[in-house]
Amino acid sequence: MMKTKIVILVSLFCLVLPIMAQEPQNNLGISLEQLRVKFPELKYWTETAEGTMYKYGNEIAFIVKDNRLVCETMYVEGDDSYPYNWFLAMVKSFLKTNYIHKIGDEKSIIFFYSYFQVHIMYSSYDNSALISYDYLPKYK
Predict the structure, then answer these.
(1) Rounded to an integer, what distance in angstroms lies between the CA atom of residue 96 and that of residue 125?
(2) For residue 110, with 0-12 CB atoms within 10 Å meaning exposed, 13-18 middle and 19 or more buried, which class applies?
(3) Which residue, among 68, 40, 69, has the nearest Cα to 56 in the 3D structure?
(4) Residues in CB range of 94: below 8 A, 6 or more apart
(5) Taking Cα atoms as reference points, which of 99, 134, 128, 98 lies closest to residue 116?
(6) Reported pTM
(7) What are the backbone dihedrals phi and psi of residue 4, each rounded to the nearest 5 degrees, phi first?
(8) What is the pLDDT tens value at each position of the chain, 140 positions in all?
(9) Cα–Cα dist 138/115, whole Å
(10) Are 78 and 69 in contact (CB under 8 A)?
(11) Alpha helices of 1-140 — where are they, by DSSP H?
């Protein structure tokens, strides 16, 4: 009887642990070639201290260093309330994830995960929002 209870508890733990450990999916770590397959219109942009920047349209930017994606940023702008509503939807969505820690205020929040961080920000100055996935310093 005791063995059965232990087996049931271990089984439940094994089922719940993967659900609790889920982090947002991202493209960090993929190669430049893999990035070009996912984003066929990818264009070289410039060199920075962090790596080589590429952009996809005017809304998505990437930083590649040593043939590995180290940062991905999406930018949203508009004349109406869309950027702010998008910002709120992103924050609400990430609040449901298994983040380790979060910091910020009502217009800028950073979620920390096991090896990366997600920064979501809204600017009322130019009515824009952005989301950026970056490796934590230890993994850069």
Answers:
(1) 28
(2) middle
(3) 40
(4) 24, 109, 111, 118, 120
(5) 134
(6) 0.82
(7) -65, -45
(8) 434 333 333 333 333 334 445 899 999 999 999 999 999 999 999 999 999 999 999 999 999 999 999 999 999 999 899 999 999 999 999 999 999 999 999 999 999 999 999 999 999 999 999 999 999 999 98
(9) 8
(10) no
(11) 2-20, 32-38, 82-95
Q: What is the DSSP letter of 27?
A: -
CB within 8 A of 41, min separation 6: which ones? Answer: 56, 57
Q: How far apart are CA 111 and CA 33, in angstroms?
A: 28
Query: Do strands 101-104 and 108-112 pair parallel, antiparallel, or not at all (unpaired)?
Result: antiparallel
Q: Which amino acid is at 86?
A: W
